[in-house]
């Protein structure tokens, strides 16, 4: 076990290990902070990718070892080590360990490599093999020693139980190997049948209490999802009604906006009409009109078109009107000048 003094940055090392568990499924811790196994399938074959973290990690890239050994351009066929993956070739202390491993696993899942015959598991800590592989090795050992023993070695039994305990349910810490079947009680024929007969193997797995518990949890989750789906369907009518109401409110808001624009245009027009400067201009025009009317009355009198009484009456009225308007215009002009001097 590595001590804190051996790590350049223990917190960042743990963070990298967390990314490994986040981006990948079936991660099994072999040695804390040092060695991890990721179990995956490709073309109906079980593989184990061992992740070895050196003392200088994350400053030094991790070692990835695939078991069983395969023929692939990324993998060294002699050692099973993944050497030429892009994530490893371009590795830096800022790389995510989980993403690097995820890309390697996806490559093998998308393009299943050919397995080298008679290849053995490569690991520095006696990796835990998948159940079917362990059983095959157990049978080979039994046949070598002799069929009379009809038992599986203690180490193989421990490997099988450890693997099953890791694969059973990563979210339930209460599950222990005591819930798993004891393979040492099976006969040689049963072990062979378990290894060779997929249907018997599936039945054997389904009868395990761990699997049954997982199935119960799955059924519970399915029921919960169905309940949520029904609730969503029941709320569909209310949601449609809310959408309709929202659409009506949007139309009302649109109509009010158009009405507001029309009223605003009227307001601007009225503001221009009643602006002091515009009123002064209108008064100037009115004075000019009244003066023109006075001149017209004089011309009519001189031409004999109207009598003296009519001339005096019309001329006096027009002149009075012109004087009043001129006085108003001059007074308004003085007020505007005073406001302008005051800064308004």
Automatic annotation (TrEMBL):
It comes from the Eukaryota. Signal peptide: none annotated. Pfam families: Mod_r. Residues 257-344 form the VPS37 C-terminal domain. InterPro entries: Mod_r (IPR009851). It is found in: Late endosome membrane. Keywords: Coiled coil, Endosome, Protein transport, Transport. It is a peripheral membrane protein. GO terms for biological process: protein targeting to membrane; protein targeting to vacuole; ubiquitin-dependent protein catabolic process via the multivesicular body sorting pathway. One of its GO terms (cellular component) is late endosome membrane. Residues 211-273 form a coiled coil. Component of the ESCRT-I complex, a regulator of vesicular trafficking process. Required for the sorting of endocytic ubiquitinated cargos into multivesicular bodies. May be involved in cell growth and differentiation. PANTHER family: EG:115C2.5 PROTEIN, VACUOLAR PROTEIN SORTING-ASSOCIATED PROTEIN 37. Belongs to the VPS37 family. This is VPS37 C-terminal domain-containing protein.
């Amino acid at each position: 076990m590595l001590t804190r003094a051996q790590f350049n940055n223990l917190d960042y090392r743990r963070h990298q290990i967390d990314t490994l568990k986040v981006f990948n499924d079936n991660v099994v811790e072999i040695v804390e902070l040092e060695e991890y196994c990721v179990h995956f399938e490709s073309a109906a074959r079980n593989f184990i990718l061992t992740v070895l973290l050196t003392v200088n990690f994350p400053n030094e890239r991790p070692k990835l070892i695939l078991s069983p050994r395969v023929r692939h351009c990324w993998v060294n066929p002699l050692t099973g080590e993944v050497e030429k993956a892009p994530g490893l070739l371009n590795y830096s202390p800022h790389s995510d360990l989980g993403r690097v491993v995820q890309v390697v696993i996806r490559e093998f899942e998308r393009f299943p490599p050919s397995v080298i015959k008679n290849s053995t598991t490569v690991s520095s800590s006696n990796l835990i093999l998948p159940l079917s592989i362990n059983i095959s090795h157990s049978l080979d050992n039994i046949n070598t020693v002799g069929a009379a023993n009809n038992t599986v070695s203690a180490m193989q039994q421990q490997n099988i139980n450890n693997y099953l305990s890791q694969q059973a349910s990563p979210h339930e810490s209460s599950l222990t190997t005591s819930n798993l079947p004891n393979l040492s009680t099976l006969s040689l024929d049963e072990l062979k049948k378990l290894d060779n007969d997929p249907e018997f193997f599936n039945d054997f797995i389904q009868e395990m209490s761990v699997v049954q518990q997982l199935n119960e949890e799955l059924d519970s989750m399915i029921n919960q999802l169905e309940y949520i789906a029904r609730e969503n369907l029941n709320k569909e009518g209310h949601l449609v009604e809310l959408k309709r109401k929202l659409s009506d409110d949007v139309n009302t808001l649109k109509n009010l906006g158009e009405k507001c624009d029309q009223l605003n245009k009227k307001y601007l027009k009225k503001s221009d009409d009643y602006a002091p400067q515009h009123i002064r201009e209108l008064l100037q025009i009115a004075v000019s009109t009244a003066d023109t009317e006075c001149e017209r009355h004089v011309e009519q009198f001189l031409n004999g078109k109207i009598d003296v009484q009519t001339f005096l009456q019309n001329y006096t009225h027009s002149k009075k009107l012109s004087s009043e308007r001129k006085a108003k215009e001059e007074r308004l002009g003085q007020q505007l000048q005073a406001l302008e001097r005051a800064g308004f």
